[in-house]
């Protein structure tokens, strides 16, 4: 039996979270990891209890949906809310972070950003990551790594 790698496992988790996104413009998921353990997760969505873009349409100003809190930001804020340190942690995101999220990740002490898809990679974000010694690495999700049929079927009993 092939074991799933840590990179694929965490990246798969981010893709799973992305399915919870409520902003129709982009479904994004983010998983913050420290010492190979998931400490937080987030997806693109409105504030807790707020209206969803999926129900009301996006609230677009200057080509951006202002209702949405980005996945990376949601994951960081979950850590802030529950007092979980992010210094030295890593993040797995489905898309390359926007400039605002990039700055927040650097400031929160995130040391590595793994992303599955390039997305309007802002040159200034790339520059800031380099200057802050934050590693960015593309980790594409291999869809073949997830095969729930391996575990979904009951074990065959042998007599
Ligand atoms: Zn939206
Ligand atoms: Zn962002």
TrEMBL record:
<dbReference type="GO" id="GO:0006220">
    <property type="term" value="P:pyrimidine nucleotide metabolic process"/>
</dbReference>
<dbReference type="InterPro" id="IPR002125">
    <property type="entry name" value="CMP_dCMP_dom"/>
</dbReference>
<dbReference type="InterPro" id="IPR016192">
    <property type="entry name" value="APOBEC/CMP_deaminase_Zn-bd"/>
</dbReference>
<dbReference type="GO" id="GO:0008270">
    <property type="term" value="F:zinc ion binding"/>
</dbReference>
<dbReference type="Pfam" id="PF00383">
    <property type="entry name" value="dCMP_cyt_deam_1"/>
</dbReference>
<dbReference type="GO" id="GO:0004132">
    <property type="term" value="F:dCMP deaminase activity"/>
</dbReference>
<feature type="active site" description="Proton donor">
    <location>
        <position position="72"/>
    </location>
</feature>
<protein>
    <recommendedName>
        <fullName>ComE operon protein 2</fullName>
    </recommendedName>
</protein>
<comment type="similarity">
    <text>Belongs to the cytidine and deoxycytidylate deaminase family.</text>
</comment>
<dbReference type="InterPro" id="IPR015517">
    <property type="entry name" value="dCMP_deaminase-rel"/>
</dbReference>
<dbReference type="InterPro" id="IPR016193">
    <property type="entry name" value="Cytidine_deaminase-like"/>
</dbReference>
<dbReference type="InterPro" id="IPR035105">
    <property type="entry name" value="Deoxycytidylate_deaminase_dom"/>
</dbReference>
<keyword id="KW-0479">Metal-binding</keyword>
<dbReference type="GO" id="GO:0005737">
    <property type="term" value="C:cytoplasm"/>
</dbReference>
<dbReference type="InterPro" id="IPR013404">
    <property type="entry name" value="Competence_ComEB"/>
</dbReference>
<feature type="domain" description="CMP/dCMP-type deaminase">
    <location>
        <begin position="5"/>
        <end position="132"/>
    </location>
</feature>
<feature type="binding site">
    <location>
        <position position="101"/>
    </location>
    <ligand>
        <name>Zn(2+)</name>
    </ligand>
</feature>
<keyword id="KW-0378">Hydrolase</keyword>
<dbReference type="InterPro" id="IPR016473">
    <property type="entry name" value="dCMP_deaminase"/>
</dbReference>
<feature type="binding site">
    <location>
        <position position="70"/>
    </location>
    <ligand>
        <name>Zn(2+)</name>
    </ligand>
</feature>
<feature type="binding site">
    <location>
        <position position="98"/>
    </location>
    <ligand>
        <name>Zn(2+)</name>
    </ligand>
</feature>
<keyword id="KW-0862">Zinc</keyword>
